[in-house]
Design a protein that fits this description.
Length: 149
């Protein structure tokens, strides 16, 4: 029902229907996070951003919510906000190579190639055979004229 309401442009009714459908979730943070995932799948990162914000207000140390909020910001090209959220996620879980990879992508998209390269190197220290990180690192090193290591 929420999907149909979204397709017809009634975002408020879609949110209400979605939250009603998610009442079985164990808590408010989980409900908001599930709603955010729905909005991400619908291509509405702006609505997902708000829902992840609600989820984080309820569960401020949930690294998954920070990571997904960072992705929502990236999809909206709000790179500064994405970078801030990925960095918050890293403070909660400092050894997660995927979060470093997501941070590196946001840094590269914001044209901060040197920081991105350093962040990718950190991801590869944590997970040495992270093929996506290796590929992006090589691409950025070529783009910046640095020799691949």
């Amino acid at each position: 029902m929420a999907k149909q309401l979204m397709e017809h442009g009634d975002e408020d009714a879609a949110r209400i229907a979605l939250h009603n459908a998610l009442e079985s979730e164990p808590d408010a943070a989980s409900q908001s996070a599930a709603a955010a995932e729905f909005f991400m799948e619908m291509g509405r990162a702006d609505l997902a951003e708000a829902e992840y914000g609600f989820a984080l207000a309820e569960d401020p140390n949930n690294v998954h919510y920070f990571n997904r909020l960072g992705l929502a910001f990236r999809r909206q090209k709000k790179y500064k906000d994405a970078i801030a959220n990925f960095r918050k996620a890293i403070t909660v879980v400092p050894d997660d190579a995927v979060i470093y990879f997501n941070l590196a992508i946001a840094l590269a998209e914001s044209k901060d190639y040197n920081q991105s390269i350093g962040t990718l190197r950190r991801a590869l220290v944590l997970e040495p055979h992270f093929s996506h990180a290796e590929k992006l690192l090589n691409t950025l090193q070529k783009k910046t004229g640095q020799l691949p290591s």
